[in-house]
What we know:
This protein is an alpha+beta fold. It is built from 3 helices and 7 strands. The protein is globular. Strand 2 and strand 3 form a beta hairpin.
Amino acid sequence: MQIPLASAGARLASDAGRAVDLKLGPHTVTADHAASGAGAGPSPLELMTGALAACSAMSARTHLERDGDPGDIEVVVTLDAGPPTLLYRRVLLAFRLDRDEAHRLAAALERTEVTMMLKPAFSIRTQIEHAGEPLA
C-alpha cells in the first residue's frame, strides 16, 4: 500500500440527521445535506467546489509570486448541472495581466492536483478576470 496523499474519516451520529463530522487530518469539519435551511455545514458538493477553489488560489499565488507579490487572489467555482456537468472556475485578480501571462496562468491551473483528480468526471472551464474583464 502506498502512502496516501490525503485521508478523511466521516462519523454520522444516530441523532444527527445528515450532519456528518469529517476528520480531515487534524481538522474537524461538519458537512450537511440539510432537507431545508442552511444546515450545519457545507454540502459534499460545496466541499468539492471549495477544494478546487482553494487549490486553484494556492497554485495561482505560487505561479504569480515569481514576479513579486500578486496581492489578493479570489477564486469562485460553481458547479453547473448541465448537461454537460461543468465546473466553472473564475480567478479574480486585483491587477491586470497581459493576455500571454493570463494564458500561462490558466494553463498552470489545469495542472493542479484537484483539477487533475476532477478532470475525468467533469469539464472544467477557467476564466481569468481583472475588474470584471476576462483576460483568458
